Structures are given as C-alpha cells and as structure tokens.
Prior knowledge:
Elements: H1 3-12, E1 13-16, E2 22-24, H2 26-36, H3 43-50
Antiparallel strand pairs: 1-2
Amino acid sequence: MSDAMEELSLRLVVGHKRDGRSVYDESAKAELVAACGKPGASVSRLAREYG
C-alpha cells in the first residue's frame, strides 16, 4: 500500500456509534470513492483493504 493510501486508511474511520457502526471522515471517504473510479482499480480489493 502506498504512503498516501496508508494515510487515508488511518484517517478514514473517526469513531463508532453505540450500535458498532463506523463513523467515517467525509473527505477521506470521498478520496476512497475517487480511487474506486480510477482505471484498473479493483473496487472489491479496496473494499477489503479499507473495510
């Protein structure tokens, strides 16, 4: 994983709700969605890596 993607992984989840669901940083989430749209990107792989 590149340094930029590792940094994205660290700031993606900012907390958890009482029912266990994650709360995501909106800008990090937008970056991840943009990464899924790049040519050759595997949405499945990115989903597994970032949960």
